[in-house]
Amino acid sequence: MTKKKNRISSPPDRPLRIAIAASEAAPFAKTGGLGDVAGALPKALSELGCEVKVFIPKYAQIDDSKYQLHYSAEIGEMPIRVAGIVRTVHIQQAKIPGSEVDIYFVDCPHFYYRKHIYTSDRDEDERYILFCKAVIESLQRLRWAPDVVHCNDWQTGLLPLYLKDNYNWDRMFDGTACVMTIHNMAYQGRFPRSTVQKAELRENQFHPGGPIEFHGSVSFMKIGITYSEMISSVSPTYSREILTPEYGHAMEEVLLPRREDLVGILNGADYEHWNPDKDPMVPYHYTAETLDEKQKNKEHLINQTSLPFMPGKPLIGMVSRLVAQKGLEYMKAVAAELMLLDAQWIILGSGEDQYEELFQRIAAAVPQKMWAYIGFNNELAHLIEAGADMFLMPSAYEPCGLNQIYSLKYGTVPIVRKTGGLADTVWDWHELQAAGMETGTGFTFLEPSGYSLFTTVRRAIDVFDRKDEWRKIQLNGMRMDYSWEKSALSYIDLYKTAVLKKRGSI
Ligand code: ADP
Ligand code: GLC
């Protein structure tokens, strides 16, 4: 009996077809970890036998010739209406480097040829309304019906609604389920009521408690959650945190009734790109067996800066968007004390003026101790991973975090606040030692304060002097395996569950 039921309700035997929509994907366009995920997960899924197509906007920042983008004649010219105006949209396409995965770029210069990938322009809503419509219309023209449309963050939140409403006349999508992945709950895509018309949503659904209204605004994140069969976030701990008012930013109201449909899947690391053994951006390759080579990278890195090379002193690296999420308030509170510690600092980041200025000020005041590069620099990010001794991520909240995962691989000991994905990936050396184990991989603190941050950095600096102990921590971290395969298998389970839900089988 049970067997028969399983057979009838199980997803298709042919490869799963997954359309992944995201607002950025490495190496084409990246501002943070979402780009890393949207560039790497599709490759891992394809290696596991899925058919995958990825969609992102064609931003001005994307280098057409480097990645051999070409016009998709199969899709052709698409007239798409947003806010009552019909725009002409073309699709460029390419392969994700190192794979056979097709990636499609929604090309509409009016919306995407701007100074930055994300803007606070008045038509930010329109930019992603167009994107969502263009993804669906591309699938129609390709005559490719996905089993799952995998949406990522608010920019793709309209897709599940459009598939179930505006485009549900197209029977091609009858079997298509949606998964919404939350990479950052603080960004909810909230817009004024006028967005209802711009996006051609239903006026009668805009009321408190209705599917498109969220505290007086339209929220694309809420829409994505509401209309998706399954929801995920990027670490088990964050998937629990967002059910609380502290981390949910009010969206816990929407998520709590759906908690059965919410799973946490840790991001993986793309070890093709982030691996000290073969990283082309790192001059001296090393493994756990040849870890002494790391010191040469430290010297190379320091020589790129104005810091003096002091081999015996720990070098602490940070690579980060400079926003409050990253725990910079705690750093600000104890910046003077941190600079008294016997360590050097290299900071790479860009973001809010106040934090950019903070690091520039410190670097100017203590040039022997801190060097700061304000901007986005992928090569330097890799060099810091390879050359620093420690990596600091004191985040106020962190849905997953990728840099601590990269740091582990590079033998660069992470110092992190125990929240979200940081809590799921870094084990405190002293905490485990107290329990009789020498399996720690870094240093962690829970209390969100400058004081806790300071004492934890000091703990790490103390251990740094005990070379054998330090080496053990490095090796423990380097042995951790966060490759994408495991996470991709969890996504496949999630997709299958979404398909079954869509068919009403569960
Ligand atoms: P988030 O997505 O919140 O920014 P993650 O840790 O998940 O945090 O991912 C950040 C990614 O962006 C990493 O790959 C990191 O190396 C990269 N990154 C962040 N800031 C910079 C920068 N200024 N220059 C180069 N890479 C950066
Ligand atoms: C978000 C989060 C970060 C996560 C990334 C990729 O930007 O801030 O923690 O790693 O998305 O999922």
Which oligomeric state applies? single chain
The small-molecule ligands in this entry are: adenosine-5'-diphosphate, alpha-D-glucopyranose
Rg for CA atoms: 23 Å
Low-confidence stretches: 1-9
Top-tier CATH class of the largest domain:
Alpha Beta
Q: Structural class, from secondary structure content?
A: alpha/beta
- Beta percentage is 15-25%
CATH topology tier name of the largest domain:
Rossmann fold
Q: Determine the mean pLDDT.
A: 96
CATH H-level homologous superfamily name of the largest domain:
Glycogen Phosphorylase B
Helical region count? 21
How much helicity do the residues have?
A: 25-40%
- Under the CATH scheme, which architecture of the largest domain would be assigned? 3-Layer(aba) Sandwich
Tally of separate domains? 2
Shape: globular
What kind of sheet is the major sheet?
10 strands, mixed
The counted number of beta strands is: 19
Distance between the termini: 16 Å
In short:
The chain has 506 residues and is an alpha/beta fold.
Any overview of this molecule?
The radius of gyration is 23 Å and the shape is globular. The chain is built from 21 helices and 19 strands. Strand 7, helix 5 (158-164) and strand 8 form a beta-alpha-beta unit. With 506 residues, the protein is an alpha/beta fold. The chain starts with a helix and ends with a helix. It has two domains: 16-268 and 485-502, Glycogen Phosphorylase B (Rossmann fold, 3-Layer(aba) Sandwich), CATH 3.40.50; 291-482, Rossmann fold (3-Layer(aba) Sandwich). Helix 2 crosses helix 21, helix 4 (124-142) crosses helix 5 (158-164) and helix 11 crosses helix 15. The structure holds adenosine-5'-diphosphate (ADP) and alpha-D-glucopyranose (GLC). Alpha-D-glucopyranose is lined by residues 32-34, 37, 183-184, 234, 267, 398-402, 421.
